[in-house]
Amino acid sequence: MHNDTIAAIATPPGVGGVGVIRVSGSEAFELVLPLFKRPAGQSELPPSHKLTFGHIIDPHTREVLDEVLVAFMRAPHTYTRENVVEIQGHGGPLILRRILHAVLAQGARMANPGEFTMRAFLNGRLDLAQAEAVMDLIGSETEAGQRLALQQLRGRLSDQIQQARQAVLGAIARIEASIDFPEDDIPTPQPEDLQPLIAEAYQLVSSLLAGSEQGRLYRQGVRTAIIGRPNVGKSSILNAFLRTERAIVTPIAGTTRDTVEEAANLRGVPLHLIDTAGITPTDDPVEQIGVQRSRAAAETADVVLLVFDGSEPLTEQDRLVSAELQAMGFGLQAANSDGTISKRPVLLVINKADRDQKIETSELKKLWPEGVFVSTSTFSDAGLRPLEDTLADIVLAGRMLYSESVLVTSTRHQEALRRANGHLQASFHSLDQQLPLDFVSIDLRAAYDALGEVTGETASEDLLDKIFSEFCIGK
């Protein structure tokens, strides 16, 4: 299957100035050349990696389909390390489909999602971590996320993983040589021979895990629900974050009846903001659906902005909303499975700070004894800045912003690194307990394989299929 020639539209659906059809495989040149009509006298294969002007014609009717620029790129200096042809035509969907159909009629096969990148991986141009970085780079929402994806694509994560694997392999080799070749009088390695190698791997893996939560934030962002009773200014806060009038704002309570989701940039972290309907008892069936969706948004949020109207006294509805969030675990301490204590963060926003303040902060503090409070006004950027600064402090939790250190951004990578870390700790324990070296070797092998899952050296075919199926067609 990976030896045939594949083709697909490589640019996003829709109308654009330029569209690209990508063809890859051993027969890419032979399939495209008969479709490519150039000025008289030019029949030889154009120079590699240079754009050549001409027209794409229908192979059956000889009709001119489009005026194009075509690049013929010889292996192995291509994205897939196969012969690749890229046809640049006008970006109309009909034009691109007709060109693609002409290429398929010549004998190419329609590419599966992510198949070009999968071939780059299988042909050794990229390892699996780099291949995954391709989609991260395409989907990055902030400059910080883009830089991290590019860093991973350039192999910085892979280099550190390989360094850890080599240290583990060195320890395994010493153990197994003494076990497998006793007749050669190879001395049995002592703990002091193995511990430096295991410690090197453990330190590398631990440093990657230490930055993984920050990396996850830059890649996945923070889901932030704006919650409160009707008419406290939730939609105004959304618009202020976005610097545009995205949500409808009126003095009439209940203007927002559904959730509105948009993305903003919070110091390089994608902030997925969800404006919600006011949580309030109602007999209106449409409003009831909006309230249910507001509760669902709060349940799935990483952070909640609980908004109060500072120009009015605290109401019973404010208390009811607070009670609902506390029942969901926001603002309260919770024990994690590893024994640590964490909270679901809630930021208490006293809105409309530009008006006379009638809300009693002492009452709010009784409701939320450990709450973080911020006063804001959506009439100017200056009024929003305290909210952005406080939210950034909560989200980043004292962590440094983007640095040049390697940050793990993938949940899959984090899980593999945690397993590797656990096996390395177990190997230390076996050495301390003076258990037979076979026990140490088992854990080291497991750590070696777990690290290989990150770069793809020990990844199963099912895992590869799952990863590349999430790519877009044409990439």
TrEMBL record:
GO terms for cellular component: cytosol. Mg(2+) binds at S235, T256. One of its GO terms (biological process) is tRNA wobble uridine modification. SUPFAM superfamilies: P-loop containing nucleoside triphosphate hydrolases, TrmE connector domain. GO terms for molecular function: GTP binding; GTPase activity; identical protein binding; metal ion binding. The keyword Magnesium applies. The keyword Magnesium applies. Its cofactor is K(+). Binds 1 potassium ion per subunit. Residues 221-396 form the TrmE-type G domain. (6S)-5-formyl-5,6,7,8-tetrahydrofolate binds at R22, E86, R125, K475. Homodimer. Heterotetramer of two MnmE and two MnmG subunits. Exhibits a very high intrinsic GTPase hydrolysis rate. Involved in the addition of a carboxymethylaminomethyl (cmnm) group at the wobble position (U34) of certain tRNAs, forming tRNA-cmnm(5)s(2)U34. PANTHER family: TRNA MODIFICATION GTPASE GTPBP3, TRNA MODIFICATION GTPASE GTPBP3, MITOCHONDRIAL. This is tRNA modification GTPase MnmE. It comes from Dictyobacter aurantiacus.
